[in-house]
Design brief:
The chain is an alpha/beta fold. The chain contains seven helices and eleven strands. The strands form three sheets. Strands 5-4-1-6-7-11-10 form a seven-stranded mixed beta sheet, with helices on both faces. Strands 2-3 form a two-stranded antiparallel ribbon.
């Protein structure tokens, strides 16, 4: 098995004219550093390829964050297309940011990769709005990937707290429930991770490192 992790980030850069969004940097940088520390190679892809838009609010970060290597990795992502195949990767990870709500759910290559990783029982992780990757994905029999799975994701309460409910195309917690997911929200801004087989999901930015740790344990030992 390849010891390379594919990290897929958003290419979407605005919620509305004048309201910038993109990737929430912490949710990429912390797992990126943890995966590298654990000895995995990393490839970074996005729907459009090229530089990744960063949510400006996510750049006011703790100076101890491992930022330089992560920023370099985001400067020239590979385009997510038919050449990006699950066989080349041991795990798939989706960090969040509000941009993911716009371009992940309807991207056919996101849908394909999520389905392939689920059906081949390979490690798939997502944090905060990253579980939007599950929204459009279907199994071969037409069943939503999210159906019957325990999932953590950015909660309705947290979306209300950041005052972006009306700006989103849908509420992630609600949509995952509509698809049959067993969404497990915890207290706002708490470090909360749910592991369901090889699917690892976290609720918010505070959960970023814990999601990465759970993924590393699965990759090394097959359990958490």
């Amino acid at each position: 098995m390849s010891q390379t992790i594919l990290m897929v980030v958003t290419s979407h850069d605005e919620i509305a004219p004048g309201h910038a969004t993109g990737l929430w940097f912490e949710e990429f940088a912390i797992p990126y550093a943890r995966f590298r520390e654990a000895g995995f190679e990393i490839k970074v892809a996005s729907p459009k390829g090229g530089p990744t838009p960063l949510d400006p609010k996510s750049l006011d970060i703790d100076p101890s964050f491992p930022t330089v290597a992560a920023q370099q990795a985001l400067s020239d992502t590979i385009p997510l297309d038919e050449n990006v195949r699950h066989e080349s990767y041991s795990a798939l990870f989706f960090p969040g940011g509000h941009g993911t709500m716009f371009d992940l759910p309807e991207n056919p290559h996101v849908q394909r990769l999520v389905t392939e990783f689920i059906e081949h029982e390979k490690v798939l992780g997502a944090v905060c709005h990253g579980p939007a990757c599950l929204v459009g994905a279907m199994l071969q029999d037409g069943t939503p990937v999210a159906k019957g799975r325990r999932i953590a994701a950015f909660s309705n309460a947290e979306e209300r707290a950041v005052e972006l409910v009306d700006a989103m195309p849908f509420l992630l917690e609600d949509r995952l429930r509509e698809l049959g997911g067993d969404v497990d929200p915890a207290e706002d801004w708490s470090d909360h991770v749910v592991v369901d087989g090889m699917l690892v999901t976290g609720q918010n930015p505070q959960s970023s490192r814990s999601v990465a740790e759970a993924m590393v344990r699965l990759l090394r030992h097959g359990d958490t």
